[in-house]
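Structure in, sequence out. Go:
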C-alpha cells in the first residue's frame, strides 16, 4: 500500500486494486497502533479510532487536499503510479 503523506507521526496510505471494484474513494491513516479509514468524497470517518487530536489533524489535512486525494485514488485504481501529497504543517 503506497504511502501518500506523513505528518506528526501519522502515515497516510491508499490501497491499489487495479481492475477491481473497490469501496468508495478512501484512504487509511495510521498513528501508533491505530488505524482509521476516511472517505474522500465527504471527508468522513468510515472505520477505526484515533485520538481526537490526531483525527482532527487528518480531517483538516484531507479537507485541504481533497482534490489531490481523488486524483491519487483515480491513478491507483487505473494502474498509474500515485504521487505524494504535501504534509500538514
Amino acid at each position: 500500500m503506497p504511502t501518500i503523506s506523513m505528518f506528526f507521526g501519522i502515515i497516510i496510505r491508499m490501497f491499489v486494486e487495479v481492475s477491481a471494484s473497490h469501496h468508495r474513494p478512501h484512504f487509511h491513516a495510521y498513528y501508533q497502533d491505530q488505524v482509521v479509514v476516511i472517505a474522500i468524497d465527504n471527508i468522513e470517518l468510515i472505520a477505526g479510532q484515533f485520538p481526537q487530536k490526531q483525527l482532527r489533524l487528518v480531517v483538516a489535512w484531507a479537507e485541504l487536499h481533497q482534490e489531490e486525494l481523488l486524483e491519487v485514488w483515480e491513478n491507483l485504481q487505473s494502474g498509474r503510479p500515485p504521487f505524494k501529497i504535501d504534509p500538514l504543517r
